């Protein structure tokens, strides 16, 4: 009897050891949970029995609501999921805007249970749909705007009611960016606030931070923003390791890198809308990090 019980317990431990952690997926702008169904299916096909939570809130036009509102509301969903998986924890994937907002969810949730966070083609250093963009991001949402003058809307009280305005980063108007932007300068600890220490410490708690992007994305501008790199005033992209956010370790990127927990992935020939819809891309750059 005791031998049988011991074997059963051993089998249960082995089963738990090889099971994949649950995954929480945060969709992009102007879409919703439905747009992530292919990714959900592929994860469950290759990693059978994986529990996947496909975030259903703030789909469609509601994805344009103020970033802080979305972050704090999404945090309540993540807390429910973490309460269901307090020991094993979960992995999290944020696509496009969802990668930036999802990262901010972690930063505002000191006791989060996320082990690996995957940022999939997300504007982590901001968005500026300038002359080098192969697809004018602005025209998706604001048909009459152009990048050169978009700051006139986004860097206002009204403009800061939109998620895009909250992470619009105009390299020619950094003074206005710091004066008016209520989101990105703070979650990137460019401007200090009462939560600056927490914003850094919550990211350092991750086992892995995975940043995925590529030169043929066509929407995230510059595409290197997916790796926390961004334009200077002459449209030259400052590499991550030369940027202030890294050299001063404002949110823990340097600490994660030096400890082997920051993974920066560049993949060519992938358009923005294909990162989560193409099996070979999913298999190569996402699944290896879902343990």
From TrEMBL:
<dbReference type="GO" id="GO:0016790">
    <property type="term" value="F:thiolester hydrolase activity"/>
</dbReference>
<dbReference type="GO" id="GO:0098599">
    <property type="term" value="F:palmitoyl hydrolase activity"/>
</dbReference>
<comment type="function">
    <text>Catalyzes the cleavage of thioester bonds from S-palmitoyl-CoA or S-palmitoyl-N-acetylcysteamine (unbranched structures) but does not have activity against palmitoylcysteine or palmitoylated proteins, branched structures or bulky head groups. Conversely, hydrolyzes both long and short chain fatty acyl-CoA substrate.</text>
</comment>
<dbReference type="GO" id="GO:0005764">
    <property type="term" value="C:lysosome"/>
</dbReference>
<comment type="similarity">
    <text>Belongs to the palmitoyl-protein thioesterase family.</text>
</comment>
<protein>
    <recommendedName>
        <fullName>palmitoyl-CoA hydrolase</fullName>
        <ecNumber>3.1.2.2</ecNumber>
    </recommendedName>
</protein>
<keyword id="KW-0378">Hydrolase</keyword>
<keyword id="KW-1015">Disulfide bond</keyword>
<keyword id="KW-0325">Glycoprotein</keyword>
<dbReference type="Pfam" id="PF02089">
    <property type="entry name" value="Palm_thioest"/>
</dbReference>
<dbReference type="InterPro" id="IPR029058">
    <property type="entry name" value="AB_hydrolase_fold"/>
</dbReference>
<keyword id="KW-0458">Lysosome</keyword>
<keyword id="KW-0732">Signal</keyword>
<dbReference type="InterPro" id="IPR002472">
    <property type="entry name" value="Palm_thioest"/>
</dbReference>
